[in-house]
Amino acid sequence: GKVIPMRKLVGPIAVLILVVGGWLYLSQSQSSTAGQGGGGKDVLGTPGPELPVTGIGSLTKDNAGKVVRIEGTITEECPHSGCWAYVQDDSGKIRIDTNKGGFALPLHKEGSKVTVTGEVTTKENGDLELQATSAQL
């Protein structure tokens, strides 16, 4: 067998990565904004009812099982798949989990503003968590 030098493969591989990456980006951005009017923000997951925004610090165990909407800044995010993040507002901080909503947050969004709708749950250690059904960046 003939050995192909690595240098000759770099160009075609780079082109392939760019084409596939571009296609994935375009197909994702079209599907996430389909049917959404307004400010051009990406809506991830399934948009629920337009709920009033609840301060994170005002959430208690009594809210467990209720669907709420929060707004805040992403302070920390799952570094590999965007499956969870911590969102903080002026009143507090909460962990959001996106698995139930069937979506993932775009990576490297720490410091970004986000609006999240989801169900308040209580973790085994007593901490509150939001099972996100949608997020808007």
Q: Overview of this structure, please?
A:
The chain has 137 residues and is α+β, with helices and mostly antiparallel strands. The chain is 20% helix and 31% strand. The protein has one helix and six strands. The chain has a five-stranded mixed beta barrel. The longest helix has 28 residues. About 9% of the residues have low confidence.
**Strand residues, percent:** 25-35%
- Which spans have pLDDT < 50 for at least 5 consecutive residues? 29-40
User: What is the average of the pLDDT values?
Assistant: 83
Terminal Cα separation, in Å? 52 Å
Give me the strand/helix succession.
HEEEEEE
Classification by helices and strands: alpha+beta
Number of strands: 6
Helix content: 10-25%
Task: Write down the Rg.
Answer: 19 Å
Largest sheet: 5 strands, mixed, barrel
Strand order of the largest sheet: 2-3-4-6-5
In DSSP terms (H or I, runs of 4 or more residues), the helix count works out at 1
* Overall geometric form: elongated
